[in-house]
C-alpha cells in the first residue's frame, strides 16, 4: 500500500494540490477536506503521483469540481496520469466531466 500524501502550493492564479499514493475510502475524506478549503482562484489537482483511485476518490474529485463550478471557479486535474488511474477515470465517464491539463 502506498501512503496517501499531499502538498499545497500557492500559484499566481490559485492553488496547486499535489497528491500522491492511494486515494481510497480511507484517504478520500482527507482529500475532500483539503480541496474544500480553497474559495478563490483556480484549483489545480496534480494526480500524476497517485497510484490508485477508487470510487471514493472519484466522488471526492467530482464534488470538488462541482463546488468550484458553483463558486464560479475552475478545478483542473493536471499531470500525466498513471495508466490505472487514467483508466478508472475513463471507465466512469469522468474524463468527459472533469477538466484536464496534462502539462500541469
How many helices does DSSP assign?
Answer: 3
H-E order: EEHEHEHE
- Global geometry: globular
Spans of at least 5 consecutive residues whose pLDDT stays below 50 are none
Q: Given this structure, which CATH class is correct?
A: Alpha Beta
**Rg, please?**
12 Å
In short:
With 104 residues, this protein is α/β, with parallel strands linked by helices. The protein contains three helices and five strands, in the order E-E-H-E-H-E-H-E. It has helices at 28-35, 55-70, 83-92, and strands at 5-11, 14-23, 42-53, 75-78, 99-101.
Structural summary, described in words:
By secondary structure, the chain is an alpha/beta fold. Helix content is 33%, strand content 35%. The chain has three helices and five strands. The model has no long low-confidence stretch (mean pLDDT 95).
How would the blueprint of this fold be written?
Elements lengths: L4 E7 L2 E10 L4 H8 L6 E12 L1 H16 L4 E4 L4 H10 L6 E3 L3
Parallel strand pairs: 2-3, 3-4, 4-5
Antiparallel strand pairs: 1-2
Helix pairs in contact: 1-2
Task: Fill in the keyword field for this structure.
104 residues, alpha/beta, Transcription Regulator spoIIAA, 3 helices, 33% helix
Amino acid at each position: 500500500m502506498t501512503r496517501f500524501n499531499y502538498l499545497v502550493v500557492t500559484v499566481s492564479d490559485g492553488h496547486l494540490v499535489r497528491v500522491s499514493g492511494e486515494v481510497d475510502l480511507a484517504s478520500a475524506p482527507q482529500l475532500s477536506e483539503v480541496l474544500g478549503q480553497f474559495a478563490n482562484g483556480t484549483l489545480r489537482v496534480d494526480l500524476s503521483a497517485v497510484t490508485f483511485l477508487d470510487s471514493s476518490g472519484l466522488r471526492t474529485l467530482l464534488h470538488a469540481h462541482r463546488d468550484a463550478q458553483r463558486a464560479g471557479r475552475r478545478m483542473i486535474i493536471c499531470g500525466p496520469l498513471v495508466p490505472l488511474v487514467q483508466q478508472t477515470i475513463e471507465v466512469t465517464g469522468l474524463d468527459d466531466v472533469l477538466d484536464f491539463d496534462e502539462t500541469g
